[in-house]
Amino acid sequence: MKDQSPCPLCSSNQTDEYYEDRKRPYRFCPQCALVFVPPSSHLSEEEEKKVYDLHENDPEDRGYRRFLSRLADPLSERVTPGSRGLDFGCGPGPALTAMLEERGYRMSLFDKYYRNDPEVLNTLYDFICTTEVVEHLRSPGKVFEELFNRLVPGGLLAVMTKLVIDKDAFSKWHYIQDPTHICFFSRETFEYIAGQFNGRCDFIGKDVIMIQKKREPGSLYN
C-alpha cells in the first residue's frame, strides 16, 4: 500500500505520488507544491546526526564563505548593521554567524543538534537566516510558523535551499541523493509560505529566498 502521509508543510491529505527511486518514494502536495519524503522513509535522528557530523563547515574556509555570501550579501543590502539576527540551523561550524558579526550584526544561534538552546527562540529578531536547513525539516509547517513568530513586523526571513524545477530534473537531481534531505521546495512553495504569513517573497539567484514580514498593524503575527 502506498504511503498516504499528509503534507508536512500545509497538512493537506490530498497528496500525490511524484517520483520513486531505489531508496525511497517522494510525494507532491498540489496545495503548496512541496515535494516530500514520507516519514516511513526518514532516517532516525541518530542516523541523521551521524551524517551531519561528517560535514566540514569551517568558518575560516574561503570557499565556504563564498558559498554563504550568496545569502549574506543580499541580506546586508536589506538589513542595517546593528540589527539582531538568528542563525537557525547553524550547524557545528557557524560560519554565517561569523560573517554577519564581522559586518556589524548581533547574532544568536540555534541548532537542534549542536546549539539546542530554547531560550533563543523566546526572542524577537530583525532577521532570521536558515542556510541549507529547510530541506532537512520533518515538520516544516510548524518550523516556519515558529520562525515568523520570532520576527518583528517588517523582519526578514532569509533562506538558502535548492529549488525543484520539474519532475524530469528532479529524477536526475543530486540534491535528492542526500538521505537527510526530505523536503523539496519550489518557487511556488515559497510563494505559498509567504502568502500564509502575509509576507512578500523575493528570489535571488537560483537558491536564495527572502521573505519579508508585513509591517501593517493587524497582519498575521504582528
Give structural notes.
By secondary structure, the protein is of the alpha/beta class. It has six helices and ten strands, in the order E-E-E-H-H-E-H-E-E-H-E-H-E-H-E-E. It has helices at 45-52, 62-78, 95-102, 140-149, 167-171, 187-196; strands spanning 16-20, 25-28, 35-36, 84-88, 106-110, 125-131, 151-160, 183-184, 199-204, 208-213. The strands form two sheets. It has a six-stranded mixed β-sheet, with helices on both faces. Strands 1-2-3-8 form a four-stranded antiparallel β-sheet. Strand 4 (84-88), helix 3 and strand 5 (106-110) form a beta-alpha-beta unit. Helix 2 (62-78) crosses helix 3 (95-102).
The mean pLDDT is 92
> Unreliable segments (pLDDT under 50, ≥5 consecutive)?
218-222
Order of helices and strands: EEEHHEHEEHEHEHEE
Name the helicity range. 25-40%
The separation of the N and C termini measures 44 Å
Shape: globular
Radius of gyration, in Å, reads 17 Å
Strand tally is: 10
Number of helical segments?
Answer: 6
Largest sheet entry: 6 strands, mixed
Helical/strand content category: alpha/beta
